[in-house]
Amino acid sequence: MRLRSSALLPLAALVLAGCAALGRGTPAAPATGADVVRAMRAKYDGTWYRTLTFVQKTTTFAPDGKPTVTTWYESIRAPEGGTTQLRIDTGDPAQGNGVLYTADSLRAFRGGKQVAYRAGGNALIPLVEAAYVQPVERTMAELAPTKVDFTRATVRGTWDGRAVWIVGATSAADTTSPQFWVDAENLMVLRAIFVPVAGAPLMDMRLGAVKPAGRGLLATRCDFYVQGKLVQVEEYLDWKADPALPDALFDPAAWSSAPHWAKPAAP
Predict the structure, then answer these.
(1) 188, 232, 221, 253: which is closest to 59 by C-alpha?
(2) Distance from the first to the final alpha carbon of the chain
(3) What is the pLDDT of residues 63-108, one digit of tens each?
(4) Nearest residue to 122 via CA among 229, 203, 54, 43
(5) Distance CA 197, CA 108 (A)
(6) How far is residue 47's CA from residue 186's CA, in Å, rounded to a whole number?
(7) How far apart are CA 68 and CA 232, in angstroms?
(8) Which candidate among 25, 43, 86, 171 keeps its CA 20 to 30 Å from the CA of 11?
(9) On the CB side of 25, how many CA atoms lie within 13 Å of its CA?
């Protein structure tokens, strides 16, 4: 059946309306990786939590696949104009064992005493916390050791059924370049492929089970893969956004003496 040209006009209008509706459901991708970081910062400007605590169920897997489960206690703070810090108590905080990370440093503690310090921190800190509260330029500087190329065009992809923007990859099929994947709707990081800590191997880190945390969000499960093999699973429990945390909790000199939310106060 042949249609008159006048009959095509309403049909074209319907098609265009449908395309517009699809466009509203899928935000336009920022041009470059740097633009993605700017979008992350802008979306939660003034609303993202500045402190966070949670209990972490940590499952590590030996080469033969045998799991070992431990409980860690983690505290994060991102002070206005200051450096974001992550304190990890690996076991009962009363034992004084753990690490204090920034994006560019690590301090290790045993029995309440600092036993090691090294430059090179935890590159996940900018992606899960600092990117939402600090200047964009600082976030990209903190991520520079990962070798993620922020000048590359943003790549569209999907992850776990959700649209994502991929920063640092050459294409959606590229899983070897240093990169991270950001949910196109809520701007949460869902995947990262790089060396997260100096001396560690290249890891494929998958962040999921995203839940509300204060006026921000938290991925409450992280799976770490090395060469396609699952080596560690982290499950976050009893999280609290914006709790009051004393400065001493992040002071290396007060590692064991500072009041800790996960241990009873001294009598």
Answers:
(1) 232
(2) 90
(3) 999 999 999 999 999 999 999 999 999 999 999 999 999 999 999 9
(4) 203
(5) 13
(6) 13
(7) 9
(8) 25
(9) 8
Whole-number Å distance between alpha carbons of 57 and 43: 30
Q: What type of residue sits at position 62?
A: A
The whole-angstrom separation of Cα 171 and Cα 221 is: 26
Buried b (16+ CB within 10 A) or exposed e, 227-251: eeebbbbbbbeebebeeebeeebbe
**Is the pTM higher than 0.85?**
yes
Sole residue written with tokens 């590359």: 152
For 28-242, which CATH class? Answer: mainly beta
In this structure, what token pair is assigned to residue 126? 């900018």
- Determine if residue 74 is left, alpha or beta; phi over 0 gives left, psi from -120 to 50 gives alpha, anything else beta: beta
Residue closest to 237 by CA, chosen among 255, 266, 262, 259: 262
Q: Which two tokens stand for residue 148?
A: 């993620």
Q: How far is CA 128 from the centre of its chain?
A: 3
Q: Is 35 left (phi over 0), alpha (psi -120 to 50) or beta?
A: alpha
Q: Are strands 51-61 and 229-241 parallel, antiparallel or unpaired?
A: antiparallel
Instruction: Name the packing angle between helices 136-143 and 33-43 (round to 10°).
Output: 130
Residue type, 258: A
Which two tokens mark 204?
């494929």
In the chain, where are the structural domains located? 28-242
What are the Cα distances from residue 92, in Å, to 67, 70, 127?
20, 10, 27
Give the amino acid at 212.
Answer: P
